[in-house]
Amino acid sequence: MQDITDQLMTLFAGINMWAALGVTFVAGLMRGFAGFGSAMLMAPIFAMLFGSADMVVTVVAIELIVSFQLFPQVRQHADWKLLTPMSIAACAAMPLGVWLLASMDKNAIITGVSAVIVLFVVVMWTGWRYKGPRSNPATIMVGAISGAMMATTSVGGPPVLLYLLSGNDPPQVNRANIVTYYFLTQFLLIAIVMATGVAGIEALIRAVILLPVMLLGTWIGGRAFHGLGNENLYRHVALAILFATGVFGLFRGWLIG
């Protein structure tokens, strides 16, 4: 018990934890409103603050609890026929991602996840949409790519988001599909990363500390989703925040590299 108390005091002692609290609150706002963006915001910054392996566990643990909170509200709108093979493929590809996480340099992961974020935002801004069929092979491929990316960087959303948003589904279905996908995949990822010893218990303790801030932001963001009509304005603001975060991560990676 004393060891855990000492770890908690150490976590709060530095400015890193206070920076993480602010980032987590903004991430919660984004997740609660749109159902996406929180992991993309937290991942590069947490990797800089705490290291890439701990970042994956901390971010995914927070996201998992938020998924538990949001899932009952959206499950009736989810497209289970689409999400089931995608989630199975993602889980099957996670061991490859964990191997990459253990093998790659921290700065390479920061640069990689930042590049993915910038590319994703640019694609979203241009209005490009996937035009191909939503066949089972395409769905499985998207899930596998996402699962490997999620295990390596905690950011597995971009391929899934671009794929899911390619159809003509209404916003509540898109939001439900995104939330449900995270709900179905994140628990296994935490179990795999912890079982391999890539990250330690401190990453989970950090997630517990940050969780109330994330839940508060998610609650406020969820209320805004139901109470505000200008979704396009929020979408552009959220994408601008993600773009700035990605660019910052890229420049930091290049400077250190």
Would you give an account of this structure?
By secondary structure, this protein is mostly helical. The protein contains eleven helices and no strands. α2 runs antiparallel to α3, α2 packs across α10 and α3 (38-50) runs antiparallel to α6. The longest helix has 27 residues, at 201-227. The protein is globular, with a radius of gyration of 17 Å. The model has no long low-confidence stretch (mean pLDDT 80).
| DSSP helix fraction | over 70%
* Mean pLDDT across all amino acids: 80
| Distance between the ends | 40 Å
What would you call the shape? globular
Largest sheet descriptor: none
Number of helices in the DSSP assignment? 11
Order of helices and strands: HHHHHHHHHHH
Runs in which pLDDT lies below 50 for 5 or more consecutive residues are none
- Classify the secondary structure makeup into a structural class: mainly alpha
- The portion of residues forming beta strands comes to under 5%
Give me the count of strands: 0
Gyration radius (Cα, Å) is: 17 Å
What secondary-structure arrangement, pairings included, does this model have?
Blueprint lengths: L1 H12 L1 H20 L3 H13 L1 H23 L5 H24 L2 H21 L9 H18 L3 H8 L6 H26 L4 H27 L3 H26 L1
Helix pairs in contact: 1-10, 2-3, 2-10, 3-4, 3-6, 3-11, 4-7, 4-9, 4-10, 5-7, 5-9, 6-11, 7-8
What are the key terms here?
globular, 85% helix, 0% strand, single chain, mainly alpha, 11 helices, 257 residues
Short description:
This protein has helices at residues 2-13, 15-34, 38-50, 52-74, 80-103, 106-126, 136-153, 157-164, 171-196, 201-227, 231-256. The protein is mostly helical.
